[in-house]
């Protein structure tokens, strides 16, 4: 069986801890590989090598660093098909969706090619007599990224691109569910000219994560995953004096106003609710139609669209809409929450519980579900389901609808469907959510803006990618200097004021 180890100092290295995790093909349910789970000793040793390699990389001029990333982008395009195939086989998403996953990472890498410009400091000429003041951005040293299973190409690139462009060494701890693509990204980085040791990929589970949290040579950590783990990593990482940003779970609402184009809204809900089997942090999992008439018409439009969805393996061709979920445990959890929804009184309008795909009986497929008359006290409303399950919560008014979203503990993304500009503007200003779509269902900002939620969807001060990433992966130093050296002011014990 294929064995996936670690990528250390520019080589594939087998694990030495003796611990492994199974990597499944979610479409068939078969174990296709096993991945090594690193020990603290393995993580610490790779980090020490990374710290040594960082010294030279950090001193390399930013344009040369950017050229490595430019070359990487070319190689990524060259290998797009191969990467997408491997990604789909471990994650389960369709090939076009896998290409989207790679593409949205690639766009952040393209943004990072602008590092020489983004890393320019600030300068004040003659801030005082003979005094100039300037600031510079320096790498933080060794940074680490801990990433989730659902975007095994995009999120590792969101982390490694800015970290490396800023001159840091980077330790990537990808998800143990789909570790192959991150390893392939490391190979491509080497082919692009990244010096050995600057990027280490350490596979593992909690042991590896705890080793990252406690390693004094790691100065900053970027995490993406579920909220309980985000809170844990943020707390322990900060307590250890590190710079930490953690992006957590979500429960994204779409509010549909009575004046909305309901066909457009229904199409958007299908893509955003069921795409990637609902395993997206920006998936829409709650529809909030305003008014019973809007709700009835929306449900009427959704049912045939949902029933027409084709669920299948990534090898099933272009008409497959979504694939299996990532593990048997994920499937069981989704189906358990569906049962809870029924028990708590929600109306299951489309029932995907008995979905079965001939020839793929052991795959982790979940049929599409639609709930109506969901209320805000139900588990299916409060918890992140991370599956192809859309809940409809009916609101009487716009105020009631935005109140639901405002009161929810998560605040990652949200969408509003309306034809009214006044409502749209009011919504964008008042809502306490990080990423807003107006007639756009999955408002993932492009690479040159920043990505991040509010409330329990994000911990830390700065967002991912865009200019914030360059702030996160650098430290600012401000220098006040006086030339020529001959200026004499005499001694003064007063706090200096510039004249
Ligand atoms: P997860 O929290 O289970 O795992 C994320 C990472 O944390 C993995 O690398 C995993 O190995 C590690 N981990 C898991 N358990 C741990 C523990 N007990 N201690 C230390 N480390 C641990 O998340 P997942 O299931 O891989 O991904 C899905 C979640 O990620 C969803 O909640 C989704 O909303 C969220 N997500 C958020 C964003 C965002 O930007 N906000 C983006 C993508 C995914």
From TrEMBL:
PROSITE patterns: ALDEHYDE_DEHYDR_CYS. Its EC number is 1.2.1.27. Residues 15-479 form the Aldehyde dehydrogenase domain. Keywords: NAD, Oxidoreductase. Pfam families: Aldedh. InterPro entries: Ald_DH/histidinol_DH (IPR016161), Ald_DH_C (IPR016163), Ald_DH_CS_CYS (IPR016160), Ald_DH_N (IPR016162), Aldehyde_DH_dom (IPR015590), MeMal-semiAld_DH (IPR010061). The keyword RNA-binding does not apply. The keyword Disulfide bond does not apply. This is methylmalonate-semialdehyde dehydrogenase (CoA acylating). It comes from Pseudotabrizicola sediminis.
